[in-house]
Amino acid sequence: MPKITDSNTTRTTGFDRRKLHHWIAFGFGSGLAPKAPGTFGTLAAIPFYLLMSPLAWPYYLGLVVLFTAIGLWACDLTARELGTKDPSAIVWDEFVGFFITMLVVPSALLTESYGWAWVLAGFLAFRLFDIWKPWPIRVIDEQVEGGLGIMLDDILAGIMAALVLLIAMRVLS
Questions:
Q1: Which of 9, 71, 101, 172 could form a disulfide with 126 if both were Cys (CB 3.0 to 4.6 A apart)?
Q2: Mean pLDDT by 10 residues, the chain (173 residues)
Q3: Which residue intervals define the domain YutG/PgpA in the entry (predicted)?
């Protein structure tokens, strides 16, 4: 468990519950998981994805763009306040990366009996690319700082995972 310094701030992560940008950057608290915060952040994104999935594609994409812009602000400000490049507890980038991954999954597939398989496949593909960080994700992760650096490597991981899902859909159809 994180150590509390007062009623509002967690010492081990720097999370301050009084700050909206911390709630966003820390994925509504999912990034406070003591182990594998990125995985917990991605898991926390699934219910939000399921709420968004029935939307028409342009609206879904619009939300992803909005969440990306919010993430650029919240992650940058939070990382600057914490004095670190990309704290592992910041997981809003995982939310957006997973949403990007799932852009290619038609909502009609989710209503099928195997719909959860696509959610699981998206989760696993995104986590693979986010953890593995193949080129150019690794370069971005190492060289781009601030909110853009925090968000961009997960955006690229989401795009690569989405391509894997597209290939899988093509092969399985």
A1: 101
A2: 43 85 98 97 98 96 98 98 94 98 91 91 98 96 95 98 97 90
A3: 23-168
Mention every residue, 6+ apart, whose C-beta is less than 8 A from residue 77.
21, 25, 147
Tally of CA atoms within 13 A in the half-sphere of 147 that contains its CB: 20
Q: State the pTM of this model.
A: 0.92
* C-alpha–C-alpha distance, residues 122 and 34, integer Å: 24
The reply to whether 3 falls in a domain is no
In 42-143, DSSP assigns E strands to none
CA 43 – CA 35 distance, rounded (Å):
13
Q: What are phi and psi of 14, to 5 degrees?
A: 85, 5
Question: Is residue 55, in this structure, part of any structural domain at all?
Answer: yes
